[in-house]
Amino acid sequence: MIITENIKMADVILQNHHLLAVINRFGIELGFGDKSVKEICSDYQLNTDFFLEIINAFNDPDFYPQHNLEKFPLKLIIDFLRKAHSFYLEQKIPEIATMIEQLVKVSPESQQKTMQMIQRFFKEYQQNLKEHITREEIVVYPYILKLEEYLQSPSKSKESYTELIRYQIENYADEHDSIEDSLQELKTIIIKYLPPQEDYFLCYKILGQLDHLAEDMNNHTEMENKVLVPRVQIMEQILKGLERK
Ligand SMILES: [Fe+2]
Ligand SMILES: [Fe+2]
Question: What span, in angstroms and rounded, lies between the C-alpha atoms of 84 and 80?
Answer without folding.
Answer: 7
